[in-house]
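Hi F.,

I've been meaning to write this up properly since the lab meeting, where we talked about keeping a consistent format for the predictions we share between groups. The idea is simple: the sequence comes first, exactly as it goes in, then the structure tokens exactly as they come out, then a line or two of notes. No screenshots and no reformatting. I'm using this chain as the first example so we have something concrete to point to.
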Amino acid sequence: MLRLASKVGDRAFNIFLAMTSWRDRFNQFSGKTRFAVCRLFIHLAGAEVAPLLGILNRAAREAVESDGDLNILGEGLVEICQNLLQYDTYWLSAANEGDVFWDEGEAGDYVNELFTDSGQRYLSEIDFSQPGSEENELLTWPATRNLVVMITVAYEGEVPDLETDLANLSALKAGLKALINLHYQERLRAIQVHFSPAQFGDELTNDQLLLNFPELIPL
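Output, unedited:
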């Protein structure tokens, strides 16, 4: 898989864009639908990010209760992206990766691959057997100082603001706004959101951050 992560060199990234452009032009003649899959990593730091963990947990519970309804997932994604934009002061590092497909099944396989990988990251799975988080948990649980949000989407068409290096502040803001627009344009075909730590009271230390999220690049 060719990666969109900024850790690849500029030359390699330009080669990816050239190959994608050539493949896009070739497939347009056959009338095939273009599918893109991308994953964003956003690392926030500071005790003040605790309320965002509550928003993420609520969106996750609503997604499960909706039995995967894409419209409800999209509404949750919009809320998450809007809140991430409001918390840009606490962004510390980021990364992104992805690929383009002309076969829906291949795109789905890649989505599943990223889902499995995100779920295996440190403390990124929610225990839904526990009762829902109450607002006062923010006061009773120790607040984590690190939070990593992983957003994976599949969509139809081309979105330049997502298919580029997002490891800088302005590009990352544009990428999150593009995700919001994709929901309202009804172009999203898959949505996944993981976050670490997933529960109030859990802690993602700096050492665990380096070990489990090596692709992160300082903003």
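Notes:
The helical segments are 10-28, 50-65, 70-86, 104-119, 137-140, 169-184, 206-212.
Residues 10-218 form one domain.

If this format works for you, I'll send the rest the same way.

G.
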